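pipeline: protein-struct stage 2 | run 1193 | ATP synthase complex subunit 8
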Amino acid sequence: MPQLNPSPWFPIMIMSWLTFSLIIQPKILSFTPTNLPTKTTPTTKNNPWPWPWP
């Protein structure tokens, strides 16, 4: 069964993770988000429902 032989795919996996971790990830993390979250609490006022009957 060739899928149990780690020789062909293990170095490829290690190289791809190293490439992602050392090259691609710092470039992605250097971007600043455009929409920063704001800490605002919405104020809601609960009005009673105006029923048409008493």
